[in-house]
Design a protein that fits this description.
Elements: E1 2-7, E2 15-18, H1 19-23, H2 27-32, E3 36-39, E4 46-49, E5 54-57, H3 63-67, E6 74-81, E7 86-95, E8 108-114, E9 122-124, E10 138-143, E11 149-155, E12 161-167, E13 178-187, E14 194-204, E15 212-213, E16 217-223, E17 231-234, E18 237-238, E19 248-252, H4 258-263, E20 264-266, E21 272-275, E22 286-295, E23 302-312, E24 320-326, E25 329-331, E26 339-346, E27 356-359, E28 366-372, E29 375-380, E30 391-400, E31 407-417, E32 425-426, E33 430-436, E34 444-447, E35 450-451, E36 462-467, H5 477-480, E37 481-483, E38 489-492, E39 503-511, E40 519-529, E41 537-540, E42 548-553, E43 562-565, E44 567-569, E45 580-586, E46 592-594, E47 600-603, E48 614-622, E49 630-639, H6 642-686
Parallel strand pairs: 1-7, 8-14, 16-23, 25-31, 33-40, 42-49
Antiparallel strand pairs: 2-5, 3-6, 4-5, 6-7, 9-12, 10-13, 11-12, 13-14, 15-18, 17-21, 19-22, 20-21, 22-23, 24-26, 26-29, 27-30, 28-29, 30-31, 32-35, 34-38, 36-39, 37-38, 39-40, 41-44, 43-47, 45-48, 46-47, 48-49
C-alpha cells in the first residue's frame, strides 16, 4: 500500500506521486505492464502517466464534499498491472485547506426580547457552519461592541461551538427599541476566514412607563357664561411605551367635586376639555381641574396634572337690595333724619361692575345716606303729614357701574301712623237756625258737623253743648236742647215760646278721641220764629162784668169827635202783632166808625133827636197772622146830658191823654226791636 498526501483543491495535472519510483519499478516496465488506475469512487480524481509513472490530479478535489466533517479524508486507488496481474492499493489523503469561511444560515437574524427580561438571560444564535476541519474550521465568535449583551460560546462534545447572547444590562425599549449587533464567526486558518451575521434585537415593550403630560399644569381663561361646548384646553400626554401600553385615555380625576364634573367634560381620546355647564364668576372665580391620563397596559399606569381655569367676570348680575332693617309704619311726627330702613346692597360681579350706587326720587320726603361701602340708610328729609299723604311707595334704585349698567328697583311701602295733631274743624264757623215756636219735643233743630283729618281713634268725634259767653245766666241751653254725641244732631227738649224767648245762643264743642284730646267750638244761633198763637188782648176800654164797656157822650157832640180809643195788645210779633180794628155790628150802622190801625172810635155825624139814647157797637180786633186771631169788645155808648157827659168825656179824655201815648210808644219800640233783630239775623244767615 502506498500513501500520498495532497491538499485539496489542487489544479488539474498537479503532482500527487511517482508510482514507479515508489514501487521501485522501471517506468518502461510499467508501461508494458498495461498500468491502469482504478478508483473506488464514481469520479476519477487521479490519472497516471504511464510514460512517467506520475500520478496527477485529473479533477477538482473538494475535501468537504468528499469527507464532510471527518477529520481525515482519504481517496483509495487501485493499480492493476498485467503480465503478471498484480494489484497495488494507493491511499491518497486529502489534506484540508482553509478554503471555506464559516457560514451562518442567514445574513441576518432577528430576536424579540422583552424589555423586562432578567439579567443573565441567554439568547442562542444559530451557529455558523465551516466545512473545513481541524484548525481551518470555526474556531471562535466575536460580538460587536454594545452596552447590553455579551457573547458566550458554548462548546459541545462533538466540537461544535454555539454562540449565545447573554443579557448583561437591563433593556429599556423607550431608550432604545432596537439593538443592532454583528456576530463574527472566525476559523483557525491562516489567514483566518470569517463571516458575519447581523443580529437585530427588537426590545418588546413592557408597561414600565407612565404617561407624561407635556406640561405639569395647564392654564386657561374663560369668560363667564361661555356657551356650552367652548374649548377650555387641549391636553397632550405621551407614553413612550407602545401598543396598548402607550394608548392613553383621559379622564377627570375622582378628586374633582361633583359640581365641577357638571361644568366641565373631557374627551377621553383627544384630551379636549370643554364647557358643559354654566360658568358663573360669582360662584367660583377659579376652577382647578384634576385630570388623569391612563395607558391601556396591564397593569395600568397613570399620570395626573391640574388645569387652572380662571373665570373672567362680565356684568351679568344686577345689584341686590337687602333690607337689613325696615319699618313699614312710621309715625307722622317723626322728625327729619329718622331712620326708616337700613339697606345693604351688593353686586356679585367684581371690579367696577360690582360697585353699586343707590338713589331715591327727589320728589319724596326721603333721602339715602351712605353709611359705608354697600350700606345705606333711608331717612326722612322733611316733616311728614299723614293727612296730606298717608302712604308712600319709596322706590330704591340700585345701579352698578358696568357697561351697560344693570339696575334693580325695590319698592318700600311706608305707611304713616296717625298722630293726634289736628283738632276737629266744624264745617261752619257758626250756625244760624230759625225755629218756629211751639216746635215738637225731640225734633232735630240743626245738625252740626265737624271733620278731623286724623284717623281711627284720633278722628272719633264727640259733641257737647256749652253755655255761650255773654248769654243770660238764667238761660241754660241744656234745658231746652240736647245733642247726639256722635251725629251732632241738636234736638229740642222743650217747645220754644217766642213770647218768652226769642233768641238762644250756645256753643257746641267737639272733641276727638286722641290722647290728649283736641277740641274745637262753634257758635250756634237759634232764632225763635213767632207763630200766631196769641189772640189780641183789649186793654182799653175795660169791659165790665157784662163784657161791655160803657161810654157816655153829649147829645151835642160834634161830628168826627173822638169818642174813645180801643187799645189792644198782641203778645205775638211782626205780622202776627199787626192789629186791625173793625166794627162788625152796630145798633145804628154808620153812626160810628173805628180807625183801622189806631182803633179810634169817632162819631160820623151829629146826633139827632130821633137817634136812640143808647148805642151798642161790637168792635173786633184782628191780627195779621195766618190764620188770623181776633178778639171783640162791646162798646155801649150812652147819650146823656152835659153833666154826666162832661164827666165821662173828661174821663175819656183823661184816659186818652194819659194812657194812649205810653202804650203807643211801647208798641213802636217793640216793632222796631223785632224788625232790627230779624234784619240782623237775615244778614248773618246770608253771610
Amino acid at each position: 500500500q502506498i500513501r500520498y498526501s495532497i491538499p485539496e483543491e489542487l489544479t488539474r495535472g498537479a503532482f500527487v506521486g511517482n508510482i514507479a519510483k515508489d514501487l521501485g519499478t522501471d517506468v518502461a516496465k510499467l508501461a508494458a505492464a498495461n498500468l491502469q488506475v482504478l478508483s473506488d469512487s464514481d469520479s476519477q480524481y487521479f490519472s497516471v502517466n504511464v510514460n512517467t509513472g506520475i500520478i496527477m490530479v485529473s479533477e477538482r478535489i473538494d475535501r468537504e464534499q468528499l469527507c464532510g466533517q471527518n477529520p481525515r479524508c482519504f481517496l483509495h486507488l487501485k493499480l492493476a498491472i498485467e503480465n503478471p496481474v498484480e494489484f497495488y492499493r494507493i491511499e491518497v489523503e486529502i489534506l484540508d485547506i482553509n478554503d471555506n469561511p464559516p457560514e451562518f444560515p442567514s445574513e441576518e437574524v432577528s430576536l424579540r426580547i422583552y424589555e423586562l427580561a432578567s439579567l443573565g438571560a441567554r439568547f442562542p444564535i444559530q451557529p455558523a457552519q465551516d466545512p473545513d476541519v481541524g484548525t481551518n474550521t470555526l474556531q471562535t465568535y466575536h460580538l460587536s461592541a454594545n452596552e447590553n449583551f455579551n457573547l458566550n460560546v458554548k462548546a459541545r462534545t462533538d466540537g461544535g461551538k454555539f454562540p449565545e447572547l447573554v443579557l448583561e444590562r437591563a433593556l429599556d425599549r423607550e431608550f432604545r427599541a432596537f439593538h443592532y449587533l454583528v456576530l463574527t464567526a472566525e476559523d483557525g486558518g491562516s489567514p483566518p476566514k470569517s463571516s458575519k451575521i447581523r443580529i437585530t434585537i427588537q426590545v418588546l415593550d413592557a408597561n414600565d412607563n407612565h404617561p407624561v403630560f407635556d406640561k405639569p399644569s395647564y392654564g386657561a381663561r374663560l369668560v363667564e357664561n361661555s356657551p356650552l361646548g367652548t374649548l377650555v384646553v387641549k391636553l397632550n400626554a405621551t407614553d413612550v411605551d407602545e401598543g396598548p401600553n402607550g394608548d392613553i385615555r383621559y379622564a377627570l380625576s375622582s378628586h374633582n367635586s361633583a359640581a365641577l364634573r357638571q361644568i366641565f367634560a373631557i374627551n377621553e381620546q383627544t384630551g379636549e376639555i370643554r364647557v358643559q355647564g354654566n360658568l358663573d364668576f360669582e360662584e367660583a372665580t377659579v376652577y382647578e381641574i384634576e385630570v388623569e391620563a391612563k395607558d391601556m397596559g396591564s397593569p395600568t399606569m397613570e399620570e395626573h396634572c391640574s388645569v387652572v381655569v380662571e373665570i373672567t367676570d362680565v356684568n351679568d348680575n344686577a345689584p341686590e337690595v337687602i333690607l337689613t332693617s325696615f319699618s313699614s309704619s312710621l309715625s307722622e311726627d317723626a322728625p327729619p333724619g329718622t331712620v326708616v330702613a337700613v339697606i345693604h346692597v351688593r353686586d356679585r360681579d367684581s371690579g367696577e361692575q360690582g360697585k353699586v350706587q343707590c338713589h331715591v326720587s327727589p320728589d319724596l320726603p326721603f333721602q339715602l345716606r351712605k353709611d359705608y361701602e354697600h350700606q345705606y340708610s333711608l331717612l326722612t328729609s322733611t316733616r311728614l303729614d299723614r293727612e296730606r299723604v298717608a302712604y308712600y311707595n319709596v322706590t330704591v334704585s340700585a345701579s352698578d357701574l358696568g357697561s351697560p349698567p344693570l339696575s334693580r328697583h325695590t319698592i318700600l311701602p311706608i305707611s304713616l301712623a296717625d298722630v293726634n295733631d289736628n283738632a276737629p274743624q266744624f264745617e261752619q264757623a257758626s250756625y244760624e237756625v230759625l225755629v218756629a215756636e211751639n216746635n215738637p219735643v225731640g225734633s232735630v233743630l240743626v245738625t252740626v258737623s265737624a271733620a278731623d283729618p286724623d284717623s281711627e281713634q284720633n278722628s272719633r268725634l264727640s259733641y257737647s253743648i256749652l253755655r255761650a259767653g255773654g248769654t243770660d245766666p238764667g238761660l241754660d241751653p241744656t234745658r231746652y236742647l240736647s245733642i247726639h254725641p256722635t251725629s251732632g244732631q241738636v234736638s229740642a227738649k222743650l217747645p220754644f215760646d217766642y213770647e218768652q224767648t226769642t233768641y238762644l245762643q250756645f256753643h257746641v264743642e267737639v272733641s276727638d278721641g286722641g290722647s290728649p284730646a283736641l277740641r274745637n267750638r262753634t257758635l250756634v244761633h237759634i232764632f225763635i220764629v213767632d207763630q200766631n198763637d196769641n189772640a189780641p188782648q183789649v186793654h182799653f176800654p175795660r169791659a165790665g162784668e157784662d163784657s161791655a164797656a160803657q161810654l157816655r157822650i153829649s147829645p151835642s157832640i160834634t161830628p168826627s169827635a173822638l169818642i174813645t180809643k180801643v187799645v189792644a195788645i198782641d203778645a205775638d210779633s211782626g205780622r202776627n202783632a199787626w192789629l186791625s180794628y173793625h166794627v162788625v155790628e152796630a145798633t145804628e150802622p154808620g153812626l160810628f166808625s173805628v180807625a183801622l190801625r189806631s182803633g179810634e172810635v169817632r162819631i160820623t155825624r151829629a146826633l139827632q133827636e130821633t137817634d136812640a139814647s143808647a148805642h151798642e157797637l161790637l168792635v173786633v180786633v184782628r191780627d195779621a197772622g195766618e190764620p188770623p186771631l181776633s178778639t171783640a169788645v162791646t162798646l155801649v155808648v150812652l147819650v146823656e146830658e152835659k153833666g154826666p157827659e162832661a164827666l165821662q168825656g173828661s174821663e175819656a179824655r183823661a184816659t186818652d191823654g194819659g194812657g194812649l201815648p205810653t202804650i203807643t210808644l211801647y208798641l213802636i219800640v217793640s216793632l222796631v226791636l223785632i224788625s232790627t233783630v230779624s234784619l240782623v239775623g237775615l244778614v248773618v244767615l246770608g253771610v
